[in-house]
Amino acid sequence: MAKANLDKEFVGLFWSETTGHGTYTQYSYSIDGGAWLAASPQPGQDGYNLPARSHGKRIAFKIVLSGASGGLSPRVDDVSITWRTWTGKESTDKGNGTHPGALPRAGVPR
């Protein structure tokens, strides 16, 4: 696990989910306790490349699961955050999905 006091450049937020008709998920993130920002992928993508200047010491994410009538609800199987050590200079290859500093994929309870 990463050291909490290490400056990091956060690169991407990726997930695996199952959604059915009338269900959806909303992802957002916050860096160092700042404002919550939407992580809105393009249709059909299972992740979000964080914008330039997404660096700090800590990142948090939240997921809102919404279901339709009839008891249907989406399911999130896992979430991962990719990052690298912050060097003071923005990277040009944001969000390529795998880095030596990638946090382990965290299982989400069902």
Name the helicity range. under 10%
Q: Count of DSSP E strands?
A: 8
> Percent of residues in beta strands?
35-45%
**Radius of gyration, whole Å:** 15 Å
Let me know the average pLDDT: 77
- Uncertain segments: 95-110
Quote the distance from N terminus to C terminus: 23 Å
The helix/strand class is: mainly beta
For the largest beta-sheet, the strand count, sense and barrel status come to: 5 strands, antiparallel
Total of DSSP H or I helical runs spanning 4+ residues: 0
* Tally of domains: 1
Shape: elongated
Order of helices and strands: EEEEEEEE
List descriptors.
110 residues, 8 strands, 43% strand, elongated, disordered C terminus
Task: Describe what you observe in this structure.
This protein is mostly beta strands and 110 residues long. It has one domain. 0% of the residues lie in helices and 43% in strands. The chain has no helices and eight strands. The strands form two sheets. Strands 1, 4, 5, 7 and 8 form a five-stranded antiparallel beta sheet that branches. Strand 2 (24-31) and strand 3 form a beta hairpin. The protein is elongated. The model is unreliable at 95-110 (pLDDT under 50).
